[in-house]
């Protein structure tokens, strides 16, 4: 199933947010690879194969969309964007405004750099 076909099952506002998120991540983080994880109903973004290479997830739902951060609880978040109760991963609700927020942009770049370091050190 294509990503577009998968996203058609969500309300138009969710489809739009996920589309904005996809474009933003692929434009902002060089070399990011996107894949559809159909059983989990998420989009996964990685800088390298394997779990260590995962950086972000985009999580659509009927009520909205979130960006997930692999091992997000280990990250600094001075703007306090991250939410969720997970012990390892964290998420941020998506809105159209967040993509122009400089603190969000900085967080995305730092998370990608940390993931690249994790992959290099893990070799």
Main attributes of the structure:
single chain, 123 residues, Aspartate Aminotransferase, domain 1, 34% helix, 23% strand, globular
Overview in brief:
With 123 residues, the chain is α+β, with helices and mostly antiparallel strands. The chain contains 3 helices and 5 strands; from the N terminus they run ααβββββα.
Largest sheet: 5 strands, antiparallel
Structural class call reads: alpha+beta
Low-confidence stretches: none
Helix content: 25-40%
End-to-end gap: 33 Å
Helical element count?
3
**Beta fraction:** 15-25%
CATH architecture: Alpha-Beta Complex
Average pLDDT, to the nearest integer? 88
Number of strands: 5
For the record, the count of structural domains works out to: 1
**What is the CATH class?**
Alpha Beta
Provide the CATH topology. Aspartate Aminotransferase, domain 1
Q: Using the alpha-carbon principal axes, give the shape.
A: globular
Which H/E pattern describes the elements? HHEEEEEH
Biggest β-sheet: strands ordered side by side in the sheet: 1-2-3-4-5
What does this protein structure show overall?
With 123 residues, the protein is α+β, with helices and mostly antiparallel strands. It has a single domain, classed as Aspartate Aminotransferase, domain 1, CATH 3.90.1150. Helix content is 34%, strand content 23%. The chain has a 5-stranded antiparallel beta sheet with strand order 1-2-3-4-5. A hairpin with a 4-residue loop joins strand 1 (33-37) and strand 2 (42-46).
């Amino acid at each position: 199933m294509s990503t577009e076909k998968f996203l058609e099952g969500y309300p138009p506002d969710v489809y739009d947010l996920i589309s904005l998120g996809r474009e933003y991540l692929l434009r902002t983080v060089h070399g990011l690879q996107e894949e559809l994880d159909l059983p989990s109903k998420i989009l996964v973004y990685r800088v390298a194969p394997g779990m260590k290479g995962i950086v972000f997830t985009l999580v659509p739902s009927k009520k909205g969309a979130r960006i997930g951060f692999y091992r997000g609880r280990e990250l600094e978040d001075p703007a306090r964007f991250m939410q969720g109760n997970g012990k390892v991963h964290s998420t941020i609700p998506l809105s159209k405004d967040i993509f122009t927020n400089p603190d969000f942009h900085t967080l995305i770049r730092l998370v990608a750099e940390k993931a690249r370091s994790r992959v290099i050190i893990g070799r």
